[in-house]
């Protein structure tokens, strides 16, 4: 599929650079990265630690601002948005799942799930919330607080939150990093379903080749640059590329 | 190794240590200067009337100091528990953690006591000069530099700090590394039985003292007992604070959650799941309102009961002296709010990353602070009213007291401002700063 117009993508980064620190301690986390994530696709971003994969995710999701370049989500350049507009973008168009600390500790699982909806001053549909929590395997735990849930359960609440308002894009940073294999696969299957069933665009940072096989494509980063990509990858192919990029 | 660890704790958490340091420092200054003045007037003679007043103010400042320092330290400990759990999980023995906590507390308390003692001298001179200037003291009050006030003041600072950190260390060690690391937002036991016991005993003591005061025949004697009752009731309210804060907070938060659903829901949930954190902010508010309310309006009540039109010097100097203590409690409202809020940077960033708007986030924090201050103010008002009604009854035989609405509202405004400033300034970086990096 050939796409030239950035607006054909759900998320498009154009010539994005991000450096941290100043002077002699300056580190370039991203160097002139241009990449688009097609609508409804599931992309894994891989690379050695320090390669800039988390920075890519943070810039693409509007959590961080690049020094140069533009990031477009839903056709808008988010690097120019003010804080209030960014907040609206985050609760309506973007879902995030982090490796840890995904949930507000004082809110129950159900309250955490509906948080973006409530922040947007909309009334969540209780039946849909219950149904969603049931689908992520948390039936009967709606009223539990994060401290009463395991790491995997917290992760699944975060995914339920990201699915509830059906945002166009779902960003996940090492969503299975803290989970055991079985729970990890359940979480990945949910992300796959978000792309297949609801046409959501999923961008996931991972270091686990097995997790990356759930994706349609894999991007490999080294030293802040995209150095390679694979479509419909197998574990062996990914492992070979990762080995070669070191 | 231990000193390196202790120092790195201080360095990574400067605001919390600064707040604790200031709290102990001011406590030592207050107690030390009161001691110096007592030593100065103890020769008797003309200064005897001053002696009684200075004695009362010393008792109050000692009480307030221990109260505020222990509250502050328990807040500090809540913050540090994670760090201690982390150290245990990387292999520190319980003994080493205890040692670390003790060394940290000793260093902070010793430094704060030294500075506090140094500041006590000019402060005592200042108070002496004011008492002389307004004509309350017939002669100059000699501020005698004797060692005893310094020793007592430092002891108050050191003992309160050490005792609180020992208890904290024991808890940190006993709870084990994993339990501490699991960030339990829902505090398990909100009223452990020792607290319940202390609270009930203090409540009973306060009621008995009020009853005793109401049987007095003259106002002066009754006032001393009422003061004791007010202090006992403050201890009771503080010990039982978590339960009261949760119940009152829930009631007050209901209309807020209706007016401003998202921000209100966040404020309400935070109060309901972390009553201890809210109680540590409500406590100094309660203390300020209870003490200032009692002293200021006791003077007004006495004056009205006696049919006087204007106040004599002796009648307003007591509220003025207590006022300087109240300044300390107001600072501790600010400190406590700042400390409890700064621990929540991660939570505030998470809220932003799921789409809370800047104004919404500010409102959630403002609501939470307002409700917490309101709970403290309600408790403080109830305590002061109980004391004042008893005084009015002794003076006039009726359940009555005199008050000034503008002064009362001014008192509430000061506490509210302290709470809001503490909450907003300490969260500024988390509210507006970068989300990552």
SSE inventory with pairings:
The complex is a heterodimer of chains A (246) and B (437).
Chain A: E1 9-20, E2 27-38, E3 42-46, H1 53-61, E4 68-73, E5 76-77, H2 83-92, E6 94-97, H3 109-119, H4 126-135, H5 151-164, E7 169-173, H6 181-198, E8 201-205, H7 209-212, E9 217-222, E10 225-231, H8 235-245
Parallel strand pairs in A: 3-8, 3-9, 6-7, 7-8
Antiparallel strand pairs in A: 1-2, 1-4, 4-5, 9-10
Helix pairs in contact in A: 3-5, 4-5, 5-6
Chain B: H1 2-12, H2 14-41, H3 48-89, H4 94-133, H5 147-175, H6 177-181, H7 193-214, H8 219-239, H9 241-259, H10 261-273, H11 275-305, H12 313-342, H13 345-353, H14 358-396, H15 405-426, H16 428-432
Helix pairs in contact in B: 1-4, 2-3, 2-4, 2-5, 2-12, 3-5, 3-11, 3-12, 4-5, 7-8, 7-14, 8-11, 8-14, 9-10, 9-11, 9-14, 10-14, 11-12, 11-14, 11-15, 12-15, 14-15
Protein name (chain A): Putative ABC transport system ATP-binding protein
InterPro entries (chain A): AAA+_ATPase, ABC_transporter-like_ATP-bd, ABC_transporter-like_CS, ABC_transpr_LolD-like, MacB-like_ATP-bd, P-loop_NTPase
GO molecular function, one term (chain A): transmembrane transporter activity
Description:
The complex is a heterodimer of chains A (246) and B (437). Chain A has 246 residues and is α/β, with parallel strands linked by helices. Chain A has one domain: Rossmann fold (3-Layer(aba) Sandwich), CATH 3.40.50.300. In chain A, α4 packs across α5 and α5 packs parallel to α6. Chain A contains eight helices and ten strands. In chain A, β7, α6 and β8 form a beta-alpha-beta unit. Chain B is built from 16 helices and no strands. About 2% of the residues of chain B have low confidence. Classes of the chains: A alpha/beta (246), B mainly alpha (437). At the A-B interface, α2 and α3 of A face α10, α13 and α14 of B.
């Amino acid at each position: 599929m050939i796409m030239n117009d950035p607006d054909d993508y759900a998320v498009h980064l154009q010539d994005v650079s991000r450096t941290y620190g100043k002077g002699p301690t300056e580190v370039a986390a991203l160097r002139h990265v241009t990449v688009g994530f097609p609508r409804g696709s599931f992309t894994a971003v891989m690379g050695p630690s320090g390669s800039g994969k988390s920075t890519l995710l943070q810039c693409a999701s509007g959590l961080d601002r690049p020094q140069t370049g533009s990031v477009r989500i839903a056709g808008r350049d988010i690097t120019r948005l003010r804080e209030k507009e960014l907040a609206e973008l985050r609760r309506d168009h973007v879902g995030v799942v982090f490796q840890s600390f995904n949930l507000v500790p004082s809110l129950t699982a159900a309250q955490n799930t509906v948080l973006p909806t409530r922040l947007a001053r909309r009334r969540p549909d209780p039946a849909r919330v219950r149904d969603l929590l049931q689908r992520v395997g948390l039936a009967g735990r709606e009223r539990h607080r994060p401290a009463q849930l395991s790491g995997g359960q917290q992760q699944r609440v975060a995914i339920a939150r990201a699915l509830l308002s059906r945002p166009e894009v779902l960003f996940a940073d090492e969503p299975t990093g803290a989970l055991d294999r079985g729970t990890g696969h359940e979480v990945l299957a949910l992300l796959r379903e978000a792309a297949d069933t609801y046409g959501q665009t999923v961008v996931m940072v991972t270091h686990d080749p097995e997790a990356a096989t759930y994706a349609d494509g894999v991007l490999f980063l080294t030293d802040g640059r995209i150095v390679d990509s694979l479509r419909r990858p197998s574990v062996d192919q990914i492992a070979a590329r990762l080995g070669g990029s070191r | 190794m231990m000193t390196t660890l202790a120092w790195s704790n201080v360095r990574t958490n400067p605001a919390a240590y600064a707040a604790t340091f200031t709290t102990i420092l001011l406590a030592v200054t207050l107690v030390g200067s009161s001691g110096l003045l007592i030593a100065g007037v103890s020769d008797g003679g003309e200064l005897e009337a001053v002696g009684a007043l200075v004695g009362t103010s010393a008792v109050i400042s000692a009480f307030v100091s221990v109260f505020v320092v222990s509250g502050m330290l328990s807040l500090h400990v809540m913050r540090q528990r994670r760090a201690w759990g982390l150290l245990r999980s990387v292999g520190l023995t319980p003994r080493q953690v205890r040692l670390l906590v003790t060394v940290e507390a000793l260093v902070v308390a010793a430094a704060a006591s030294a500075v506090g003692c140094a500041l006590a001298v000019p402060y005592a001179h200042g108070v002496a000069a004011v008492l002389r200037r307004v004509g309350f003291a017939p002669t100059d009050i000699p501020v005698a530099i004797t060692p005893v006030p310094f020793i007592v003041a430092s002891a108050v600072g050191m003992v309160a700090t050490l005792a609180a950190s020992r208890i904290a260390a024991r808890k940190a060690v006993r709870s084990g590394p994993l339990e501490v690391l699991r960030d339990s937002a829902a505090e398990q036991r909100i009223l452990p039985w020792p607290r319940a016991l202390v609270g009930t005993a203090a409540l009973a003591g306060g009621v008995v003292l009020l009853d005793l005061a109401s049987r007095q025949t003259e106002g002066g004697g009754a006032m001393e007992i009422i003061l004791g009752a007010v202090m006992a009731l403050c201890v009771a309210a503080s010990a039982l604070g978590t339960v009261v804060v949760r119940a009152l907070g829930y009631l007050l938060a209901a209309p807020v959650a209706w007016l401003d659903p998202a921000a209100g829901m966040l404020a309400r949930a935070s109060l309901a799941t972390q009553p201890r954190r809210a109680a540590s902010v409500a406590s100094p508010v309660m203390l300020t309102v209870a003490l200032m309310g009692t002293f200021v309006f006791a003077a007004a009540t006495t004056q009205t009961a006696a049919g006087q039109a204007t106040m004599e010097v002796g009648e307003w100097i007591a509220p003025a002296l207590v006022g300087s203590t109240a300044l300390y409690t107001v600072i501790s409202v600010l400190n406590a709010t700042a400390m409890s809020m700064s621990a929540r940077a991660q939570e505030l960033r998470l809220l932003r990353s799921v789409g809370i708007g800047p104004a919404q986030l500010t409102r959630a924090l403002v609501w939470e602070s307002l409700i917490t201050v309101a709970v403290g103010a309600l408790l403080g008002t109830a305590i002061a009213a109980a004391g004042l009604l008893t005084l009015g009854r002794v003076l006039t035989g009726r359940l009555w007291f005199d008050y000034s609405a503008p002064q009362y509202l001014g008192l509430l405004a000061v506490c509210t401002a302290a709470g809001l400033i503490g909450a907003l300034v300490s969260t500024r970086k988390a509210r507006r700063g970068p989300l990552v990096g």
